[in-house]
Amino acid sequence: AAKEQGRNAFRFFSAELNQEAHERRRLEGNLHRALADEEFFLEYQPQIDLRTGRVFSFEALLRWQHPEDGLIPPDCFIPVAEEMGVIRRLGEWVLLAACRQCRQWQQPGLPPVRVAVNVSGHQFNQPGFIEMVDRVLHETGLNPELLELELTESALMAGEQETIMTLIDLKVRGIHLAIDDFGTGYSSLSYLKHFPIDRLKIDRSFVRDIVKDLDDRAIVEAIIAMAHSLGLRVLAEGVEHEDELELLRERGCDEVQGFYFARPQLPEALGKYLEAP
Ligand code: C2E
Ligand code: MG
Ligand code: MG
Ligand code: MG
């Protein structure tokens, strides 16, 4: 019976794999068309400075409105776009749209507001990345100091020496740099002292259980302490409840982002965050 079960499980598993492969091929064919047909759009999620209570930045999050399949979340299609090499074009589209939007947010008499853009390692580690960023900044006229790029630890680990050069190139332009999903990636921390980073974004997985799980709480405290002694700012991702916020505030976390404050939203809905305090 066990054998029979195993065989069935295998059959089921391979059917699932087939399904997955099929799904993937379909996605691939669709991605190119989607770019041409403008099926992509961006939502923006506020990032809040806990000291001032102000929204100082918005993270741009990519969405795909598929004509038949509906809304497809980025975790489903970005890995495919990376494998196919479409991520360069897609990434450039995101940067251009986000910088254009940020330019529009600036209002005379109000403090400047930034935009944070996720950058895939595949995109970042390609030759011509800096030139692409320059082109977009030139085309949109956005002050580079209003742009932040979010990179993951694995993106930064891909090409050590060149990575540092690229980061410095971005930094001298005034662009802010953040490490996204901090704590989930590479295990060595020594890179933090070589890389010109401004901010660590503590991964949501640590924030989620911070009230109940003492280990997660200890990790968050350690990240905050380390970041501060290195002169970095710390933002906690995925804050959903008030007790999480209070704990983070007590522990000296600088900034937060999460459903407790605001979900990612269309630009039309962001007006209230852009008004004078
Ligand atoms: P991320 O950059 O770490 O973005 C945070 C994700 O957490 C977003 O999911 C956001 O909607 C979600 N989130 C924010 N606050 C909360 C909360 O309080 N609770 C919960 N449960 N979730 C929260 P999203 O938009 O589905 O994006 C997923 C990932 O896809 C992003 O993770 C990022 O790695 C990637 N991504 C999104 N847009 C882009 C893009 O334009 N380019 C690239 N390369 N990657 C992108
Ligand atoms: Mg991010
Ligand atoms: Mg993240
Ligand atoms: Mg992520």
Automatic annotation (TrEMBL):
Residues 24-277 form the EAL domain. Keywords: Membrane, Transmembrane, Transmembrane helix. It comes from the Bacteria. This is EAL domain-containing protein. It comes from Geobacter benzoatilyticus.
